[in-house]
Design a protein that fits this description.
By secondary structure, this protein is an alpha/beta fold. The protein is built from 18 helices and 14 strands. Keywords: Signal, Transport.
Length: 434
């Protein structure tokens, strides 16, 4: 009996030790199921794009979320540009280790949704209707949130392109920034700003800016049937304007890779070589800092109009990846709700320059005081009434690369015609869209 007792005790001890070992292993590996049973918070990962002030904003908000409660812990991880973020997300999803929450640049919402990588959020919104007011999201930012009438992302860091003005240089040249209303005004101002040491505007070949000018000319990038349309009259007129200004020496278009070209254009403006600069409102905080460091005053204005005033919206929506168990889904949803809530929206806008995506945030004391102190922030909000959604056809990222290549070719070779270049881009694009 004594031997049997020892044997039973030994067996129980082995089982207890094994159970403890399994519990510790499960908790450290991040597998779902153990976190909610008293072994620590539910762990989820959030991937984001862009550094500098934008990256700091993401890290700050994640820290705030983690500190305000102890049931969910979010690890924020920087993944580079939008293209890099998307590529890494696709690879991670294929490998079975995708982040629970990530950003989709708005033109990629449909691609990710239809490939089955992102979760339909419609049911989550319906269940939390008393907590999240969808009518409070700015309607101008919702065009890229739905795919086949299902909600796949909530607006987070959203933007429009705006015109950055070196107000000091404008004053020296006797130009009123408010006078730039039309393409003709814009072209004239660039000409007056240009001399032996300065250029009117420096800008990269950026598809976002081209989308704006095409819409202003009454054209469209993709028609309602999902067919390429940028080689129509509006697209040709927009590109001819750029071509004329480059040939006249009033517009500088740096070459090279898109990010490198964008950095060079920013440097031209930051150091006072260029009088104007196109960029996202998301760069506003940084550009104000650079202007102060380089001794000039910065102003912002809306994009000029042609047949109409129109700008594409931009930035990212927050999305949830598919394949999560219920516990992880709820944790991811709670994090998405926090990041897109009015208070956090206002914080992110003030910290970076991105648009506040909630109407109540725009009217908050925080934002109203900011607009009064720094009216440069309000330009993008006012311009949003002219905002429109970006194309979301499958294959559009590849179309963008093709179009940028062809436009850059035109900028380098004045003998080419805008219509021919766009026809070539359209022919190449027809092979990649779905």
């Amino acid at each position: 009996m004594k031997k049997l007792s020892y044997l039973l005790m030994f067996t129980v001890m082995i089982l207890v030790l094994a159970a403890c070992g399994n519990s510790e292993a499960t908790g450290s590996s991040g597998d779902s199921g153990s976190e909610s049973e008293g072994n620590g918070p539910i762990e989820i990962t959030y991937w984001y794009a862009w550094g500098d002030k934008i990256g700091e904003n993401n890290e700050n908000l994640v820290e705030q979320f983690n500190e305000m409660q102890d049931e969910i812990h979010v690890t924020a991880e920087f993944q580079g540009s939008y293209d890099e973020l998307h590529s890494k997300t696709q690879a991670a999803f294929a490998a079975g280790n995708a982040p629970e929450v990530t950003q989709n640049e708005i033109a990629s919402i449909e691609t990710f949704a239809k490939s089955g990588m992102t979760q339909d959020l419609t049911a989550f919104v319906e269940e939390d209707a008393d907590e999240i007011d969808m009518d409070d999201f700015n309607p101008g930012l919702m065009g890229n949130s739905y795919v086949d009438d299902k909600l796949y992302g909530l607006p987070y860091l959203r933007s429009t392109p705006i015109v950055y003005i070196n107000k000091t240089m404008f004053e020296e040249k006797g130009i009123d920034p408010a006078s730039i209303q039309t393409w003709e005004d814009f072209q004239s101002a660039a000409e007056n700003l240009t001399d032996d040491e300065h250029v009117g505007i420096s800008m990269p070949v950026d598809i976002w800016f081209y989308e704006a000018f095409v819409a202003q000319a009454g054209g469209e990038m993709v028609n309602e049937n999902g067919e390429i349309a940028f080689n129509g009259e509006g697209g040709v007129e927009a590109l001819n304007l750029w071509k004329e200004m480059v040939e006249a020496g009033t517009m500088r278009v740096p070459g090279g890779e898109p990010l490198q070209a964008a950095d060079m254009a920013r440097q031209d403006f930051a150091t006072g070589r260029a009088g104007m600069y196109f960029s996202s409102t998301a760069d506003l905080t940084l550009m104000l800092q650079l202007a102060e460091e380089n001794g000039y005053e910065l102003e912002t204005i809306m994009f000029p109009e042609n047949e109409q005033r129109s700008v594409p919206t931009g930035g990212a929506n927050l999305v949830m990846t598919t394949g999560l168990d219920e516990e992880k889904q709820q944790a991811a949803w709670e994090f998405i709700k926090f990041m897109t809530a009015p208070e956090q929206t206002a914080y992110a806008s003030e910290y970076t320059g991105y648009l506040p995506s909630r109407l109540s945030a725009v009217e908050s004391d925080t934002m109203q005081e900011l607009y009064e102190e720094k009216p440069q922030f309000k330009v993008a909000v006012d311009q949003l009434q002219y905002g429109n959604a970006r194309p979301m056809i499958e294959g559009y990222p590849e179309v963008v690369k093709i179009l940028i290549e062809e436009i850059q070719r035109l900028m380098l070779d004045p003998s080419l015609e805008a219509g021919d270049v766009l026809d070539q881009a359209a022919e190449r694009s027809a092979n990649v869209i779905k």
